[in-house]
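hey
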């Protein structure tokens, strides 16, 4: 009888694992179908085509409905699989952008204690901690990196010498980052004499690629990298989820603003600060 019991346990454990795996695989397959439909909608809405604007508008409405359904589908899958670490990824990819930091933290704490102790989950908790201090009015975190000449650049040594410093997190492989460089150059030309500096921090891990991009872009401001890629501690300290990522810091190391995704928003913040801090 004892041997039969052991056999049942040994048979049952892989079965439980398989069932858990099946739930995740089923989710992935069903989500892929939703995303396939979403991509079809995107081709109509934003692709190069001859569709009428009325038709595009009608598809846009369908796209918005589908996006909501996709998020709800992901949320339901997460609720039903709180003991499966892989659904942390589902939360990150499909739901996180629709949540506040508090809501995101609540979602993480809804996972089982076993999952919460895992490294992936702990990294999310760390991100939340740093995201809460990377807001306007809070002191920035000082950091060091190597310049192109191999010398150490300490961020605090830079911001203490200027009224404002724009920190631009970028990488050679980031097309969106490099696309913003011309606009930063224009801002730099307009405001550098007024006490505004730029410090770009590369998240490259390949020195040749970093050096090549620096030369191609003809970057005129301070640029450095520890060549650690996404493993650089500064990624966590500044709660960076993606690049380009920009932060404006004043002479005292206080965060003034961040983001600047809208055209002219950076110049607006610089003017606002300089006008309110005239000598």
């Amino acid at each position: 009888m004892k041997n039969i019991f052991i056999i049942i346990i040994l048979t049952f454990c892989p079965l439980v694992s398989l069932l858990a795996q099946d739930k995740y695989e089923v989710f992935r397959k069903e989500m892929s179908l939703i995303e396939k439909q979403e991509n079809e909608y995107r081709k109509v809405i934003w692709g190069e085509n001859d569709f009428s604007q009325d038709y595009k508008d009608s598809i846009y409405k369908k796209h918005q409905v589908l996006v909501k359904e996709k998020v709800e589908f992901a949320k339901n899958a997460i609720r039903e699989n709180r003991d499966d670490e892989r659904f942390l990824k589902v939360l990150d990819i499909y739901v996180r952008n629709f949540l506040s930091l508090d809501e995101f933290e609540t979602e993480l704490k809804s996972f089982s204690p076993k999952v919460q102790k895992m490294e992936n989950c702990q990294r999310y908790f760390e991100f939340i901690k740093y995201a809460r201090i990377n807001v306007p009015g809070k002191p920035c975190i000082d950091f060091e990196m190597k310049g192109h000449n191999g010398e150490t650049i300490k961020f605090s040594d830079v911001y203490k010498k200027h009224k404002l410093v724009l920190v631009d997190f970028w990488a050679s492989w980031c097309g969106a980052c490099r696309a913003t460089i011309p606009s930063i150059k224009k801002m730099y030309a307009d405001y550098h004499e007024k006490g505004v500096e730029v410090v770009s921090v590369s998240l490259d891990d390949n020195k040749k690629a970093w050096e090549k991009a620096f030369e191609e872009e003809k970057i005129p401001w301070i640029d450095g990298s520890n060549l650690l890629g996404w493993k650089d501690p500064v990624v966590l300290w500044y709660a960076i989820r993606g690049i380009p990522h920009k932060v404006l810091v004043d002479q005292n190391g206080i965060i003034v603003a961040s983001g600047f995704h809208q055209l002219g928003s950076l110049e607006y913040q610089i003017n606002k600060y300089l006008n309110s801090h005239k000598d």
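Residues 57 and 222 are 45 Å apart (CA to CA). Strands lie at 144-147, 152-154, 164-170, 196-202, 222-225, 245-250, 255-258.
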